[in-house]
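Could you please review the protein record set out just below?
***
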Amino acid sequence: MATEQPDLIGPDEVAYRLELTPAQLKVTWTALKTLADDLGHDEHDVLEVVRQVLAKLPDENAIRAIRLDQPR
């Protein structure tokens, strides 16, 4: 008989911290924005989570100012 495992991380707890370079941040923001724009009406729960993540990132103007073609 299987027993249910309790959630290891609560729904409002931080699950992961991620350090990104400016270029990685821009790519991440762009991917999430594209995903949000492409989600359908049946995926409102996923859209809400994507919007919550985007809200934690810098605003669109700050992201657009990041240049990907800068030399390393």
Helices lie at 22-38, 44-56, 60-64. Residues 22-64 form one domain. The first helix runs from residue 22 to 38. The CA atoms of residues 8 and 70 lie 41 Å apart.
